[in-house]
Amino acid sequence: MSHSDLPPGWGQPSDAQTGATFAPQGGAGRPVWIYAGFWWRVWAFVIDSIILTTLGSVLGAFILPDFKVRWEELPIPDTSGQTMDVVDVVQTVQPETISVLIPHIQAGNWHLPGLILALLPALYFILFESSSFRATPGKRLCRLEVTTTRGRRISIGRAAVRFFVKAFVSFPFIYIGVLMVAFTRQKQGLHDLIAGTLVIRAENTQLITFEPRA
Fold it and tell me: Which of 16, 27, 99, 186 has its CA at 20 to 30 Å from residue 47's CA atom?
């Protein structure tokens, strides 16, 4: 690893050689980030999945159409060649005569409710990650943030690119795009590399300054 890959000050001459100290304070300091590891991101995704499943179930109970079962009678011809319905069967009580009831399940319009439920995960991840929270509730509980490579809040467009690459490329292809998090230097999945994003540990973000000793 070259010196340029290290956080500010790492790999430089020691304090005894330069007469300098490191101090976490503002000013000309540069941010040092702790990248979120693979398992932290897995736990955050599990929490988000539970939240999304609960939201989808509650929302579905209100917007999904009601089921109705309509019974249609299918008369069976008797020995005389005449068809008989259920009333005839009850009145004549002939064992050789059968009438069959066929259930037909009817539901209302599925298009709009289905579209809303399909878009729920996209809206959840895109809006939360591009908001001032910089994270979904699952990531927030795990103390994670999604930022640009410069540590800034991501836009809605960048969040959308990140989500759709993750949903249609990183996950479907044997999770290779997700497993990349464990092997890349900045813990980036394929969706992070394409969208230009990082996932960092929020509580470990700090400023380190290199100041001459007085």
Answer: 186
pLDDT tens digits for 137-195?
Answer: 999 999 999 999 988 999 999 999 999 999 999 999 889 999 999 999 999 999 999 99
Q: What tens digit of pLDDT does each residue of 83-96 get?
A: 555 555 455 555 55
Among candidates 11, 116, 132, which has minimal Cα distance to 55? 116
**99-107 and 144-148: which strand pairing?**
unpaired
* Number of residues in the chain: 214
Q: Residue 133 contacts by C-beta under 8 Å, 6 or more apart in sequence? A: 140
Cα separation, 77 vs 29, whole angstroms: 91
CA gap 157, 205 in Å, rounded: 25
Locus of tokens 């490191």: 22
Nearest-angstrom CA–CA distance, 107 and 84? 30
State the pLDDT confidence band at 99, using cuts at 50, 70 and 90. Answer: low
